[in-house]
Amino acid sequence: MAKTHLMLLFLLCSFIKIECSLSGFDKITKLPGQPKVGFQQYSGYIIVDKTNMKEKAFFYYFVEAERDPASKPLVLWLNGGPGCSSVGIGGFSEHGPFRTNGNGLVKNKCSWNSEANMLYWESPAGVGFSYSSEKSKMNDELTARDNLVFLKRWFMKFPQYSQRELFLMGESYAGHYIPHLAQLMTQSNKKQRVFNLKGIALGNPVLDYVTDFNSRAEFLWSHGVISDSTYNIFTSVCNYSRLMSEFYRDSLSSTCSGVIGEVNKETSRFVDIYDVTLDICIASVFAQSKVISPQQVINNIDVCLEDETVNYLNRKDVQKALHARLVGVDKWNVTSNILDYDHLDVEKPTISLIGSLVMEGIPVLVFSGDQDSVIPLTGSRTLVHGLAKQLGLNTTVPYRVWFQGQQVGGWTQVYGNILSYATIRGAAHETPFSQPERSLVVFKSFLKGMPLPEKFS
């Protein structure tokens, strides 16, 4: 009945030729335990594929800017995995307007909706509250197609944002999701301009399997986590890219098994590989790299006993307020245990797609939390520098420190005023969680197209 009502309303608006938004049906009145705020929130479903036998729908959470949303850009955020929730991680644990706290929510002082309208969605189907009535194996290409359909249909629901300045952002395996999606968006624009894409930013992203993965050994060794002898076998006997290739193909050799055994022994289960300097007790919402660091090979991250985000989003009153429902699963999880994804896609580099997007005139920022050993800064920096050289881009901002307040926030370099690299000092794999103030500075500068601050403020 509700779907029929929506369709009739949409047809009526089209017939009388007025701009008509269907977003009112998804408006959130108030989330349980939420402090009073002055901005609007929306959540619900966008059907991306429907036949007589199948229905596939993505769940989204949209937060308008705190002040003057009509003048602010739209930022689309995706988390990685594959299979991790952008709503649970990005929306409620990193840079959304609230963070969970016991039975309620507290205001996030470094929320990114202070600067932009923020859209989080759970992709692919099978992640979080998103669902598909028919199970099928997913890969990067199929995910990109579904994401493109989602965005086009989301703009039908929110037409006032259809020509807003648009930025794509994400982290970890979003280094695959976003370049593939952006490529389809630029191709779609050549037929009919639909997306006002102004920039792409990727945090600790998987861009090149060999470079990114094999940077781990040097990072662990340079931080004193593994010994000289283990470093030597980790680089000469069985490096990490070989180890993971064998693992994906169910052919883990005794040689590689022995090497990773030594690495795990010295790393210890009491060190968080997502931030090698951080004390343990990290919520499970930050175990984003099921493919990058499968549990069968790498020791699980030690987590706190309570996971407030999972508890909160599994409350029936919260799900009702979010217009969410569980389909095909018993509970909401941060990382999907039902998604069937082609793990071999991680071996396909996306750095060339980044190059193509830069050549299309789309600014790209790659940023790294400098304490992450999963996708270390050394690999990302090498890839960006190599891409700049390949594209013939000269350095326009030389490698230098940048500041957040009166402290060094990290280091940065810019090529051709269109390709940028930055580190976030003291940050983990999920930079907005571990260094929220510094991450917000990077976010602001990126949206404004400005270099990161080079002086105290």
UniProtKB/TrEMBL annotation:
Return the EC number: 3.4.16.-
UniProt cross-references to InterPro entries, sorted A to Z: AB_hydrolase_fold, Peptidase_S10, Ser_caboxypep_ser_AS
**Principal subcellular localization:** secreted
Q: What are the UniProt keywords, alphabetically?
A: Carboxypeptidase, Disulfide bond, Glycoprotein, Hydrolase, Protease, Secreted, Signal
Q: Which Pfam families does this entry report, sorted A to Z?
A: Peptidase_S10 (PF00450)
Signal sequence segment: 1-20
| UniProt xrefs under PROSITE patterns | CARBOXYPEPT_SER_SER (PS00131)
Output a single Gene Ontology CC term carried by this record. Answer: vacuole
Superkingdom is Eukaryota
Which one of the record's GO molecular function terms can you name? Answer: serine-type carboxypeptidase activity
UniProt-listed GO biological process terms: proteolysis
Q: Where in the cell is it found?
A: Secreted
Q: Does the keyword Nucleotide-binding apply?
A: no
User: Of which family is this protein a member?
Assistant: Belongs to the peptidase S10 family.
PANTHER family, alphabetically? CARBOXYPEPTIDASE (PTHR11802:SF123), SERINE PROTEASE FAMILY S10 SERINE CARBOXYPEPTIDASE (PTHR11802)
Q: What does this protein do?
A: Probable carboxypeptidase.
Which named protein is this? Carboxypeptidase
Source organism of this protein record: Daucus carota subsp. sativus (Carrot)
Organism lineage: Eukaryota, Viridiplantae, Streptophyta, Embryophyta, Tracheophyta
